[in-house]
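Following up on my earlier thread - several people asked me to post the actual chain instead of describing it. Fair enough. Here it is, all 791 residues.
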Amino acid sequence: MSRLNSARSILFAGAALAAIATTPAFAQEAAAPAAPEAQDSALADTGEIVVTARRREEKLLDVPTAVTALTAAQLDQAGAIDLTDLQIASPNTTLKDARGTNSTLAAFIRGVGQQDPVPGFEAGIGIYLDDVYLNRPQAAVLDIYDVERIEVLRGPQGTLYGRNTIGGAIKYVTKKLEDRPTMTVKGNYGSYNQADVIVSASTPIGSMFKLGISGARLTRDGFGRNRYLGIDNYNKNVWAGRATLEFETPDEKMLVRITGDYTHDKSNARNGHRLIPGLLTGSPVLSNVFDTNAGLNSPKNDVQAGGISMTVNAEVSELITLRSISAYREDTSYTPIDFDSTPSVDVDVPAYYKNNQTSQEFQALIHGGKLNGIVGFYYLGAKATTGFGVLLSTTLPGFNAYTAGDVRTETSSIYGDFTFDFTPQLSLTLGGRYTWDQRRSYVFKASYFGLTPDFGGTPIPAGAPSTDFRGTANFKRFTPRATLSFKPSADHMVYASYSEGFKGGGFDPRGSGTSAPISNPAAGRTYQDIYNYLSFDPETVKSYEIGWKGAAFDRRLNWSLAGFYSDYSNVQIPGSVGCIINNVQSFCGITTNAAKADIKGVELETNAVLARGFAGPGSSVFFNGALGYIDAKYKRFIGPTGVDVANVRVFQNTPDWTLAGTLGAALPIGSGDLNATTTVSYRSLTHQFETASPFLDQPGYTLLDAHLVYNFGGGRYSIGIHGKNLTNVHYKTAGYQYIKTNIAGQPLDATIPGNVITNGTGYVPTLGKEGVATAFYGNPRQIFGSFSVKF
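Reply from S.P.:
Thanks for posting it. Predicted structure:
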């Protein structure tokens, strides 16, 4: 049995033992489900939202950290479909589908994140599904159903739960089962034949057990077409389900919750839109940005993901609650990536990703009068593998530059975080985490004629493997956190905090050992040369934050204002380039700790009740706003040639400005309430990579959304109509570029086309012959109706 499997067995046995041996007691983590009226009022009074950002129930206004929280009612009102819809509400946040995918998440908060989803890299932003950390970005674009709330925490996290995350965390909290039999049916239908149905049911079994089950069918036709293959592009075809079993003692002091979920995404591969004509075949630039002529259709796009978790909560005394969180998850993604988006077999990449993880967390929560806190232990054992071929027209027909990577992660942490209230107004929080990380990696590169068995082929080797590398690296780090908060009155709090974040290093599973510099010509290229070239070091951030949370006019106006500064060091820069291996053009990953950066910014979130009771009890007019400004600059950026190119490098997926404003009204009509909202959001110039690109960078743009929802029958029924991107703005969210650029003199203004090189007749490609400059776009105008019925 492997070390990972042994650890898995031991941890689940330990979790089961904890469930049996713990004194029967329970302290509820999440707030009890609000009545429909309370949920609706939360639209206009988010200051009263209860969150568990610090592992205990607190009003959002009392939490001395930057956090955005959205309730189920708010998400329903906004017509939210998946996690990417949250980026409008949270300042300095980018959440999007990674390029060429429907289900892989690219997340950035305050300039920190991960765009490249290959194994070997820890995510900069932690995604948590009911307190279970998702180790890989594949299948992390979670569809929103049966949710109680979602919290977005900005800045380093690690002294309170789960995995240490350097940039922030997103907590997806599902609903606790109700005490009576219930059944809810929700649905959407609209543009592009969007047809969503979600059915949820739960029932008590005896006096101590509850069983719940949910199923979702989410479909949509494509926003465009793959004209060459005759299939939809940007479509959706998802099956999803979740089942929950809860055991709770009659005194409500102990809860055991077992949850399993499964998602099967059978959507077509999402292919990009060419921005220039094909340089080899003249393949045209299509008029519809959602159309493509991509020719690769093997393997068939298929993503399956799921997991099971068990959470045990037990209050052993009035002061101490014990918690155990055990989980196993796995996912598999097969996808054809056609970089050039032409029928040519030119930079065509059949690829797969396979991930599994086992995690175990033990916590002791102390909830005294003046002292509250947590101590915990966290373990994660994970395996991530990838394999992909690179089919190029620059070589003989059928030539395949194949790469495989296998990364094993084992990490353990101990952490603690305590808050002492000197007075009801003055509090000090001190926390720390010590992390041990280990990476064991295997990197393999070889050339074949024909596809490998991974994709149903029987290849013929074209020489010996160029890279056959195994390496192990260990990292450890202590990361502290301190916060001082002062409440001059019940409606105001100011705070100052310092925290550190740490993200472990590793090995680039796409790297080429033949590209490693030779340190000693007499000895030739050694294992140590290859190790040094393929490996990269941890990155760290030191973050300073000051904030003011307040309320005025009888809490009809609430705000949260934060200013932050981050010293970001040893920044990991993953990338990929065209390379030459054994005199043959190929595709290689190259990752360096190239950078040091300063990041500073301001964030403001506010909500205001502008009018109340003007059209009867319950009527109101309200405004919610979010503003983020960030100034992120590299102070040093050492490129592969050893030259500092910081003056021509930019932060990716980090617009200087993010703004959103929602004006809404709630009106009592008949036996129900009508809620109407209109949201305008703006994002300034966004770079897709660290190098500014006239092809891919997205100038500033504005989106307009509107929603009208009627709740009636005491909250049992709801109907609505939702409009997103009503002005039908076309905006780029990702892309690929393999065109020669003038690095030394490259301007930072992406609207200037002078930073690409031509040969007098066309652009000069760096990989393939067609030239790769393809873009992916955010959703076009969508209008859909919604309904829900609760029995």
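The chain has four helices and 40 strands. That should answer part of your original question.
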